[in-house]
Write the structure tokens for this entry.
Amino acid sequence: MDTDTGWLADNWAQIRRRVDEACRDAGRDPAEVSILPVSKTFGPAVIRAGVALGMRRFGENKVQEIRDKSPSLADCGIDWVMIGHLQTNKAKDIAQLASEVQSLDRMELAEALDRRLQHEGRAIDVLVQVKTSPEPGKHGLPPEQLPGFLKALRRHDTLRVGGLMTLAIQSSELSAVRACFRLLRELRTEAVAQGHDLPRLSMGMSGDFPLAIAEGASEVRIGTAIFGKRPQRDS
Ligand SMILES: *Cc1c(COP(=O)(O)O)cnc(C)c1O
């Protein structure tokens, strides 16, 4: 490779240090928190450079981007993780291309994914995305529907439910952001008491991950702090 990717190595090392530091501040073992690199809007060359640094899972928020990027990266053994809002009519592509969906937020989508996965003879990891902030336009399952949803998901054995995911409110008030993360943790505690096994909490992004780690994140989804500012606006 002739492009200089030293900047990426620096960013990758730095975010790992910052995550470790947030873990220590929270009295947690850094080994408990993993980083999901979010590569949306970045092309195959940068992703390939990430693979060379040891990244293996990549988060994307549009099915079309996974479709566009995956063929030229087929030799890299990448696990594509869908983290964005997913239309039901894209279930087929996801069943073929993704190893995980973190944005499962409604029964209609679960049923479509299960049908397509049965057809492919595959199972994938899923997280249930919960709407923890009152902001309009945010996707996610309303918290009060979580118990029934988790119960209904047991019917679909192509969907391996491993935990919960959320996006916090966009706010400069740290207490409001932290309250979203805390709610997700509490919902998990309730679900575990009802007999569900949900070890994973995917929460926290470049701007708010220390708060998410303080509230128990097992995984933070990091785009900007690894790959830099995104070239265009994304939803
Ligand atoms: C883009 C995105 C991220 C990463 O955001 P950054 O602020 O760039 O770290 C995390 N989660 C989701 C769902 C996203 O769409």
